[in-house]
Design goal:
Layout lengths: L1 H5 L16 H14 L4 H8 L10 H7 L1 H22 L1 H11 L2 H4 L6 H41 L1
Amino acid sequence: LDQLQKKGIPYVTASEINIYDTQEARDLEKLLLAVQYPTDLKAVTWLMQTALLQDKDCRTLCNQTGQDSVIVQIQETLSALNSIFEQKGFTEMFRIFMDRFEIHKRYPGLPQGQQKYSNLIQLRDILSAEEKEKMAAKAAKAAEKAARKAAQAN
């Protein structure tokens, strides 16, 4: 591992920590809460304090454009993400969030950034798989219902 680090090659090591016990899981929970309730100032400010939005105390971000306008901008983004979540699901919403806030560019520069990024991707994959399972179950239930209706009609 030292050789990889000396050559500047990013790497992630296996961990015994449960993925759900990581800071990234807590940050993702705050993101989902803020997306669900974009007008809730507490949810938005909690999200702003995560590594996902890169500004632990919000001072830099708030001082650049004024606190109210930053919060309004983030709330507008979260409202748009909420609509995407409702229409297209978690996976698409999270992809757009990751692009909008340049997570793939910023996380490698954080302390243990490769591990943190890997944790986010793993959590995304887990939630995406659960979303697909729920959609498949819903589709199967709808098909079953349609088949029963067709059988009753005959």
